[in-house]
Amino acid sequence: MTRADIVAKFVEKLEEAKLSPITIRAYKNKITDLLMHYDKPIEDITLEEFSEFHKDKNPHTAVQYINCMNKYKTLNNIEHKEWVEYRKNELDKETQKHTKKSNNYLKNLPTREDILEHTEKLYIRGDQQGYIMNYLLTHFYCRNQDLDCKIVTRKDELNDKDNFLFIQRGKPVKYIRNNYKTKFSHGVKEHDISDQTFIKRLKGFNKNFNHIIDPETADSSKQSLIKSKTLNQLGEINYLKAQISHLTDPSVLNEISDKRGTSYKLLLNDYNVNA
Question: I need a labelling partner for 69 at 20 to 30 A (CA). Which of 63, 119, 127, 237 fits?
Answer without folding.
Answer: 237
